[in-house]
Design a protein that fits this description.
Number of helices: 22
Strand content: 5-15%
Number of strands: 10
Shape: elongated
Number of domains: 4
Largest sheet: 5 strands, mixed
Distance between the termini: 92 Å
Structural class: alpha+beta
């Protein structure tokens, strides 16, 4: 509890407040006494609250509420502005514009600075003076109320679908443009524009952004943008820009494919702007993340965010951190991968090469990806890996403490090569020969077409080997493979213990996908160590098949 404060003045203010409140009990003790000599004490907050009724600010507020202040200026204001412009000339003026006119009249007539005068006081005095002759309308898209004359034939309220409001704003709104319409046609045109704007504003308020947190790649696609952009907003912009003349369609209008993305981009900008960045859209999230990973420049992200094209740099960091947390909370296998489907794992080193004084202490870790062919709509969703739906609480966290990596130690043993296989090599090559008969013929045809010059032609316009086979395949296009990122191993792959951890994780992934074996792709440095470990582990030998990277295979081919 706060301590008592001794009275250090003659107590005139306290006595005046007691008289104003007619506090006879206190007056009996204070009247005719020297408050300092009798050592009057009180709490400072209680004293301020008690004497507030006799302070200048309180009296001023009371006078404003009662309509006593600025009476000469208010009379002139009612005659020249309200009566002449609003009632006689049917003007529609925002109340903050009327307030500014009133303040200027006070300064000119009474030479008083009334810049702190509130809209609520002017509104109350106008209601007391004019009653039902004027009305106050607040469109949903505006903070400032509109003041106009009230007439029985006025259909503005019906056209705008505006409800009367008695809410009083205590904020000083900035001066806005006066809506003056001296003819019925001009006023009707203005009301129609406001009506259209209000409809679009209501549509923007109902629109929903990306709800999932953290948003994943499937939440930031063009199709997802189509889903969250309201049809009414899309059609309105298509009609405004002249990209569509279909004014009778209730569904989304058809536009050219090259401009659809631009319309979706503008729609998402409007959603982002109207919500002041609270509604996240695929465009703003994906663009911010792309700029971060391509350039790493927070200044560039800040410029784009200032123009309303992407989220802020802090939001990008929050998104990136949430994705990392979700990955760490999973079971080590990305979502969406099906069981009993051929899968390939790729492991490689990832060296950042930071600049240090000694050249040591730089970052060396091991990254992996999982690749699986997309089987299309025939895949049973129940066979998909269910480990992705890990809930992450939305927070302001923008950094992440790297968790320790469990490295499986490898203890060296005497080296020995692989055991002799019992496969019949001739039978294997014979079976492969039958399967490769048609591809070999295609390669021979490609070689002949490339080497034989056609008479009369300056050059051979045959495409490359890939384009050649695509032409022969016709319209048959293989599905795009699914790619997922595996948890990072915070250790260098040059260490055999790290390679042993890679092989152990590969077997775990094969178990989760119900695969008897799985293909592991790596470069030559990891390959040599992995083979040495594999030959000494029966499970690795039976379940892991190693493949060198294509670049390494090409180098070996060129050396032979």
């Amino acid at each position: 509890m706060k301590g008592l404060v001794a009275c250090e003045t003659d107590g005139h203010t306290l006595l005046k407040a007691a008289e104003f409140r007619k506090d006879e009990k206190l007056l009996l003790q204070l009247r005719g006494q020297d408050l300092v000599s009798i050592e009057v004490k009180y709490h400072k907050s209680c004293y301020q609250s008690y004497v507030r009724c006799v302070t200048y600010s309180y009296q001023k507020k009371t006078e404003e509420e009662s309509g006593i202040m600025y009476a000469p200026s208010f009379k002139k204001f009612c005659d020249e502005v309200v009566q002449r412009r609003l009632i006689d000339n049917d003007e529609v003026v925002p109340i903050n514009v009327l307030k500014n006119i009133f303040i200027k009249m006070i300064n000119d007539i009474e030479d008083i600075d009334a810049s702190s005068y509130k809209n609520m006081y002017l509104k109350k005095r106008l209601k007391q003076r004019f009653g039902d002759k004027i009305k106050f309308l607040r469109p949903h898209m505006q903070k400032c109320e509109l003041v106009m004359a009230h007439k029985e034939s006025d259909s503005g309220g019906r056209i705008l679908n505006i409800t009367h409001t008695d809410s009083e704003s205590e904020e000083d709104e900035a001066e806005s443009q006066s809506f003056a319409a001296h003819s019925n046609s001009q006023q009707h045109e203005m009301l129609e524009m406001i009506h259209s704007a209000m409809n679009i504003h209501a549509t923007l308020e109902k629109a929903q952004g990306v709800a999932a947190w953290p948003p994943r790649a499937e939440d930031l696609t063009i199709q997802r943008s189509r889903d969250i952009v309201p049809t009414k907003l899309f059609n309105f912009l298509a009609w405004c820009t002249g990209l569509s003349q279909d004014f009778h369609s209730q569904d989304r209008v058809d536009v050219q494919a090259d401009v659809e993305n631009k319309l979706l981009s503008i729609c998402q900008d409007m959603m982002f702007l109207s919500s002041q960045g609270r509604k996240l859209t695929p465009k703003h999230l994906s663009l911010g993340m792309a700029v971060r990973h391509v350039t790493g420049s927070s200044s560039l992200i800040g410029l784009l965010n200032g123009l309303g094209h992407c989220v802020s740099h802090s939001k990008v960091l929050e998104h990136d951190t949430a994705l990392a947390i979700q990955q760490l909370h999973g079971d080590g296998l990305p979502p969406g991968f099906c069981q009993e489907v051929f899968t390939t794992l790729v492991w490689d080193n990832n060296d950042f090469g930071e600049e240090t004084l000694s050249g040591k202490g730089t970052t060396h870790n091991t990254n992996g990806i999982v690749i699986q062919r997309n089987l299309g709509d025939d895949t049973d969703d129940n066979d998909s890996n269910p480990s992705i739906s890990v809930a992450v609480t939305k927070s302001k966290q923008r950094t992440l403490q790297v968790p320790p990596t469990n490295i499986i130690e490898y203890h060296g043993r005497p080296r020995h090569g692989p055991a002799l296989s019992g496969f019949n090599v001739d039978e294997i090559f014979q079976n492969q020969g039958r399967e490769q008969k048609i591809p070999l013929k295609k390669d021979l045809a490609f070689w002949l077409c490339k080497t034989v010059q056609v008479e009369g032609e300056e050059c051979n316009l045959l495409p490359s080997w890939t384009g050649f086979n695509q032409k022969l395949s016709g319209s048959v296009t293989p599905p795009v493979s699914k790619i997922g990122y595996l948890p990072v191993i915070d250790a260098s792959p040059t260490d055999k213990s790290t390679v042993n951890t890679i092989l152990s994780r590969s077997v775990d992934i094969a178990n989760k996908l119900s695969l008897q074996s799985i293909v592991v792709t790596m470069d030559q440095a990891i390959y040599s160590k992995a083979q040495e470990i594999r030959w000494q582990n029966e499970e690795y030998t039976q379940r892991l098949f190693y493949v060198l990277e294509s670049f390494t295979q090409l180098c070996h081919f060129c050396l032979q």
